[in-house]
Amino acid sequence: VQLQASGGGLVQAGGSLRLSCAASGNIFGINDMGWYRQAPGKQRELVAAVTRGGRADYGDSVKGRISISRVNARNTVSLRMSMNSLKPEDTAVYYCKADQSGMNYWGKGTLVTVSS
User: Which has the closest alpha carbon to 36: 102, 112, 93?
Assistant: First the structure.
């Protein structure tokens, strides 16, 4: 499984940003797929994830501000996450993750910086 992430960047507090992730390669059996983030000096945490069936789960710190959606196609699985009302504490490196039969695949991180 290869994960290609896009989006991220610098945004002012209160602004919005969209992150996308596309899974390709041997995508058969991908179950949960989602975004995690890691801020300096902190552990990696769940931002949002969605099951193959479309059920979404959100981290407590982002509930109400983020929406995630997923499209399962024949040769790829696409993930899109919209982040609104961004806060400086949302600043982190965001990682896309895919779970395939219990094995986790991580994409390269993309930096999101929210200025106050």
Answer: 93
